[in-house]
Amino acid sequence: MFPLFMVLFIIVPALELTILIKLSQVLGILWTFLLIVLTGILGVTFAKKQGLMVLNIIRNQLNNGIMPSDAVIEGLLILAGSLFLLTPGILTDITGFLTLIPLTRLLMRELLKNKIRLYISNGTWRVF
């Protein structure tokens, strides 16, 4: 688990900082700053739209007596994607937007479901 935290809290921010510095050298500081702000605004707007859509799916499934397990997982993925979009950086923005796109979110949902099934059957959690 420690190597995962090392990647998340040391390597990813260092990569993000490097990318932002290089981007500011190419585009300029103002355009880089505006890009960060714009992706944040677009991300929050898109996340809200997707989140409300999934919330309606959950509500409809519950009203019809269906357990909304897939929709709940998608809701959690949208929440995670929103958090990625609020974090300044290019890699986190790409990850966040991929999480908000329905097709890639479907793939992520299935991968996560498979991880959960393996955890339930084996009792161990493997990240990769």
In DSSP terms (H or I, runs of 4 or more residues), the helix count works out at 5
Query: Mean pLDDT, rounded to whole units?
Result: 89
Tally of DSSP β-strands? 0
- Whole-number radius of gyration? 17 Å
Distance between the termini: 11 Å
> Can you tell me the residue ranges where pLDDT is under 50 for at least 5 consecutive residues?
none
Question: N-to-C SSE series?
Answer: HHHHH
* Helix-and-strand structural type: mainly alpha
Number of domains: 1
Strand content: under 5%
Q: What form results from the Cα inertia axes?
A: flat
How much helical structure, as a percent, in the residues? over 70%
Main sheet attributes: strand count, strand direction, barrel closure: none
Describe this structure in words.
87% of the residues lie in helices and 0% in strands. The protein contains five helices and no strands. The chain has helices at residues 2-27, 29-63, 69-86, 90-100, 102-122. It is flat and about 55 Å long. The mean pLDDT is 89.
